[in-house]
Amino acid sequence: MNIKTVGNITSSILIIGCFHGDEPQGKYLIEEYLKTKPDTNLCFIPCLNEYGFEHNIRTNSNGVDLNRNFPTKNWVLSEKDNFYGGIEPASEKETKFVIDIIETNKPKLILTLHAPYKVVNYDGPAKEVSEQISKIIKYPVEESIGYPTPGSFGTWAGIERKIPTITLELDEECDIKELVEPVFKIFEMLEKY
Fold first, then answer.
1. How is the beta sheet containing 141-142 ordered, strand by strand?
2. What is the pLDDT of residues 109-143, one digit of tens each?
3. Are 166 and 126 in contact (CB under 8 A)?
4. How far, in Å, CA of 119 to CA of 116, rounded?
5. For position 1, what pLDDT does the model report?
6. Does the structure show a pLDDT above 90 at 167?
7. How far apart are CA 68 and CA 71, in angstroms?
8. Is residue 153 within 8 Å of residue 101, measured between CB atoms?
């Protein structure tokens, strides 16, 4: 397993890119930010789903949607499709890696970078910081993504553990370079959070 954290491992802010391999925006933006700010006090996981990224698919090497594999109260054994939650909760090495980072470091806020919905979605006590992010990136704030997400990271971390958890759904149709300025501003805001 090649998953790694970059930045300040003991930071109270955790930022995760590339939960889904076909949503590479987060990995790119994190890596570009770290080039400009190598001494960051944020903790990053630039690419959680390396297999999916390498193959441009949503799921990991076992065909599991990592954002449906967390041990939530609403986890269900589902059909083996793009939203397959695995054979059991936390069955995947990537899920276990994130759980271990969170249980060890106890971040006070988590941001995950996804695509394509152009919304600032939040779980748990994250409305205020979501509104601050919304002002920077000009996306609406949504408490619900609009469809069921059993076993999701947001439910596990935000709702069940009460860690403010934000899913920043980036525009996948614009040139990635257009996202650099607003996303860097969000990271800079979180440096001071």
1. 6-7, 43-45, 13-17, 109-114, 165-169, 119-123, 141-142
2. 999 999 999 999 999 999 999 999 999 999 999 99
3. yes
4. 9
5. 56
6. yes
7. 9
8. no
Query: Looking at the DSSP assignment, which residues form a beta bridge with residue 43?
Result: 7, 14
Q: From the options 1.10.10.350, 3.75.10.10, 3.30.930.10, 3.40.630.10, give the CATH code of 6-191.
A: 3.40.630.10
- Those residues whose C-beta lies under 8 Å from the C-beta of residue 73, and which sit 6 or more positions away, are 155, 160
Looking at the predicted structure, is the pLDDT value of residue 38 above 70? yes
> CB of 107 within 8 A of CB of 91?
no
The token pair that represents 136 in the structure block: 């920077």
CA angle 152, 157, 160 (to 5 degrees): 90
For residues 167 and 145, is the Cβ–Cβ distance under 8 A? yes
Q: Which residues pair with 120 in a beta bridge?
A: 141, 168
Q: Which of 107, 97, 43 is nearest to 70 (CA)?
A: 97
**pLDDT of amino acid 74:** 96
Distance CA 105, CA 90 (A): 19
Long-range contacts, stretch 100-103, CB < 8 angstroms, 24+ apart: 101/5, 101/14, 101/43, 101/45, 102/14, 102/157, 102/161, 102/163
pTM of the shown model: 0.96
Residue 43 contacts residue 11 (beta carbons within 8 Å): yes
Domain ranges of the chain: 6-191
Find the largest Cα–Cα distance for the chain: 43
